[in-house]
Design brief:
alpha+beta; five-stranded mixed β-sheet; 495 residues; binds glycyl-adenosine-5'-phosphate; globular; BirA Bifunctional Protein, domain 2; Herpes Virus-1; Rossmann fold; 33% helix
Length: 495
Amino acid sequence: MEYEKIVDLAKRRGIFWQGSGIYRPVAGFYDYGHIGAMVKRRWENLWRRFFLGLDDNFYEIQASVIMPEDVFKASGHLECFLDPVVKCGKCGNVERADHILEDLLKESFEGLSSKELTELIRKHNIRCEKCKGHLEEVEERNLMFPVAIGTGKDKRQAYLTGETAQGAYVNFRQMFDAMRRKLPMGLAIIGKAFRHEISPRQALIRMREFTQAELQVFFDPDSIGKHPRFGEVEDYKLFLHPAAGKMEHVACKDAVKRLHLPEFYVYHLAKVQQFYLEELSVPEKSFRLKELSAEEKAFYNKYHWDIQLDLESVGGWKEVGGVHYRADHDLKGHGKVSGVSMSVNVHGKNVLPHVLEISMGVDRNVYALLELSYRQEKARDLLAFPRVVAPFDAGVFPLVNKDGIEEKAREVYEMLRREGFAAFFDSSGSIGRRYRRIDEIGVPAGITIDYDTLKHGDVTLRDRDTMEQARVKISDLPAVLKRFLNGGSLSELGN
Ligand code: GAP
C-alpha cells in the first residue's frame, strides 16, 4: 500500500489534509474534512463504549489543554520530555537524530544518549539529507509548547499539555471525592495533545497537534496481582513480542506465570487486544503488543508494551498506543509540587494509588484504519471500514429523478434519519457512479429506490464489500439495516 495513494484519497474525498492549506502550511498540523471527522468521531465513540464499559467506576472527564508550569514540573515533562535533534551546520535543517539513523539502518535507536547518537552519525558518515552538509553534535530539545497566560508584566508561564493524562491526574482528588471513593477508579479523556515534534511526518502519524484517547486507571498497588475478572481472559491468547525475544501467542495466565506480568496489567492487555481484533476487526497478522526495552520505555513507566499495527505505507510496525504501568510517578509528583495530598482512604487504609494507563493516538488509529481498509479492485477503489466506524451507515439513492422516485427516496432517507441512522442522500450521476463514490468513502450500505419501489414498497439494499443486493420492504428497512450494520449478511436479511 502506497502512502501517496492514501494521502491522495484522503484529500479527494474529504478525509484529511494539511491545515491552513490556503497559506504556506506548517508541517505537523492536519485538518479533517466531513468524512474524516465522522470516522474519527465514530472511532472515539467506539473507544468510549468499550473502555468505559470495562468497569462501572470508570468515567469520562474533560480538562483544559493549557495548564500552569507547575503541572509539568510535577509530571517531569519540563525536565525529561526531550528528543535528540541534530542540526546541519550548512543549511540549518533540523532533524530527529534517531530517525535519521532509523531510516538509514532500518533499526530502532530510541533511548540512546546524545553522545551515542553523535558517534553513530560520525561512524556511518551521515550528512544532511537536504544539502549533504556536515551535521553538528546531537542535542536534546524539549517537546512542550510554551504559552503565556496574561499580558504585559502579568504574564504567567504555562504550557499546552503534551498528553491528556495530566488532565486526569490534576483532577484525581476532586473526582475521587465526587464519586464513590472507591478503587479502582478510571478517568478517561479524549482530547488534544501538543508536542514540538522536530520532524513531523507521515501525515497523521507524527503531528504537532493531535488527539489522544487515554484511560487512567487508579488502583491500590497491593491489588496489582489480581483482577476480579481475570478468569474471563485467562486462556485468551495475547499476541506478544517481548523486548528480548520474538513474536509469540501467550495465554494470559502464562503471561502472568512465565513473563511475570501482574494479573491487573495482563487483563488490560487482553482488553486492548480484543478492542482491536474484535471491535475494529483488525487482521490478526497486523496486530501485536511489543514490549519496550529499558532504554526505549517512557521515563515514567515501569511496564510498557506498545500497541503496534503493521502499516506497510509508513514502513511496517507502527505504535498506535500503549499500555503503561506508571506506578505512583504522577500522583506522587503532583502531591509534592501542589502540596495537596493524593493519598486516599479506602476501607480504613491509606493508599497512594498507582496508575495503569491505556493510551491511544486517535489520528494514528484513523490513519491505520484507512490503510487497513483500503482495497484496490479491478473496477473500483474501496474503503472496507468496519461498519461500526464507517462515516455513514447508508447512502440513499433515487434511481432517476422523475416520476415520483426522488420524492419516495427522500421519504426513505428522512425515515432512516428519524430512526437514528447516519444516512445521506445523493441524486446526482448514474447509479453506478454513486455506488463507486460511497465505496470510496467506505459507506457499508447503498439503498436504491426505483420503479418497483412505487409498486411493491420495497428497495434495493447493496452491500459495499460483496456488491450483493437484496430487496427489502421499506417497513422492514430499519430493522434489517440495524442487523446488517451489526454484522449480518445480505443473504440472511433480504430477498
Ligand atoms: N500518556 C502517555 C503518552 O502520551 P505516548 O506514547 O507519548 O504516551 C501515546 O503517546 C500515543 O499518542 C501514541 O501511541 C501515538 O498513538 C500518539 N502520539 C504520540 N505522539 C504523536 C504525534 N506526534 N502525532 C500523532 N500521534 C502521536
